[in-house]
């Protein structure tokens, strides 16, 4: 079993038989350890794809297989992060990060007895994302970028095999976004986690991903799959190479065409 | 009122500077209100049977202290008991309604309809069921004050951000987990905020019920004072109600700040 995620000919319709057909004939595969990006016009079903993989929605036709098992209910081997960091304001950053451990079956019964070990793990993650010493702060004491870093820690605390990111940097300014790209890049390199990133930022996709899926307008399906040729580890400088810009340009053209086709 | 405030006494600077005017303002304004009221009564030469001066009202409080005290305690008792039941029931019903979107959709119109009934119209029914006295007063206070609690708690639960719910559900969270970890803590600011409204309404309920169907309480005291044209005593009752209302409100406001300070700071930070 080489694919961690495989989606086969999936249709997903919201709101009954006459509802919105969000994705149709969707087929894609992501290998273990791979960094995949999904780009496409707005409203094409990217978030729907995320929810299909995590088991929040079950498709009407087709199958979604994650880690060798057909998805019929939420799969707890994933971590998720959205554009909205959704930190709980009554919990400190550290308590927010520990929240998944209070839920995931494997950890929730061990949490109380092994609190110290888990707190140490959370603090290590905080250090990796550059938030060392901020664990005791409340979310509203952190900037948007810092909250998003904490959000990544929360998505990773239960050591998921698969990290799903839905436009996580969309609301941040350009410099903070680039900083967080590097954080994600390093996390991916260090933890060996498989990542699926949904984004509308093509430079982000090319900089981070091994593989880029271009989606059609709604109902979404995969129009094209690109391999990103750049060597790892990548430096932010790679974005100023001609080949990088050519790739961004090509993706841009494909999406513009997909939008017109709709 | 303003004339009194605009001519502050000429005092040396350090003393003026030492006074915290913002803190003192509520007291100063209250005193100013009473002074203006007194002056108005003197200026218009009002008979005490129409509008008694504050001095008459305070005189009445001193003169009838024993019944005023007894009835104030009775009203405070029926109000807080009704309010306490409203808190427990309101919290429970609010959690129940906010639990699922279907229950929320189904019960919300019913609740609105129920709330639209003037509660004073229910007092006669309560009297038929329970006789006059303490019980209908407690129940009226309860009925009138539990609605804002229910609505606020249910709204707090029903407006959980879908992303938060998705993150937790993807981890395998059951409905119960989401309620315990997110829904209930999240609805607490709504809940404590509603207590201020609810306690004020509870006084309305108990006094209305006491006025028409009781032999005790400030409501009853005021209605019998009125039938004897003892207008200063009516006003004394009003003053006692105002004091009880302010004190209970202040307690609720303090509780709100203590329990859910994060909500105030987090909205201020955004
Ligand atoms: N819960 C839902 N109920 C009904 N329609 C939905 C729901 N979620 C998404 N949709 C519709 O499905 C389509 C795809 O949505 P989404 O996956 O969020 O797109 P994207 O993330 O690519 O912008 C959109 O047309 C959207 O209106
Ligand atoms: Mg989306």
Helix and strand element order of chain A:
EEEHEEEHHHHEHEHEEH
Per CATH, the superfamily of chain B is MetI-like
Silhouette of chain A: globular
- Largest chain-chain contact? A-B, 30 and 24 residues
- Regarding quaternary structure, how should these chains be classified? heterodimer
Low-confidence stretches of chain A: none
Secondary-structure element order of chain B, N to C = HHHHHHHHHHHHH
Query: Could you give a short account of the major beta sheet of chain A?
Result: 6 strands, mixed
How many individual domains of chain B? Answer: 1
In DSSP terms, counting alpha (H) and pi (I) runs of 4 or more, how many helices of chain A?
Answer: 8
The total tally of domains of chain A equals 2
The total beta strand count of chain B reads: 0
- Small molecules held by this entry: adenosine-5'-diphosphate, magnesium ion
Structural class computed from helices and strand pairing of chain A: alpha/beta
Report helical residue fraction of chain A: 25-40%
CATH class of the largest domain in chain A: Alpha Beta
Strand order of the largest sheet of chain A: 6-7-8-3-9-10
Instruction: Work out the strand percent of chain A.
Output: 15-25%
Q: What is the CATH architecture descriptor of the largest domain in chain A?
A: 3-Layer(aba) Sandwich
What is the gyration radius of chain A calculated from CA atoms?
18 Å
Topology record:
The complex is a heterodimer of chains A (262) and B (270).
Chain A: E1 3-14, E2 20-31, E3 35-39, H1 46-54, E4 61-66, E5 69-70, E6 78-82, H2 93-103, H3 105-108, H4 115-128, H5 144-156, E7 162-166, H6 174-191, E8 194-198, H7 202-208, E9 211-215, E10 222-227, H8 242-261
Parallel strand pairs in A: 3-8, 3-9, 6-7, 7-8
Antiparallel strand pairs in A: 1-2, 1-4, 4-5, 9-10
Chain B: H1 2-6, H2 13-18, H3 21-44, H4 54-63, H5 65-99, H6 101-116, H7 123-130, H8 134-158, H9 162-170, H10 175-213, H11 217-227, H12 231-259, H13 261-269
Helix pairs in contact in B: 4-12, 5-6, 5-8, 5-10, 5-11, 6-8, 7-8, 8-10, 10-11, 10-12, 11-12
The structure holds adenosine-5'-diphosphate and magnesium ion.
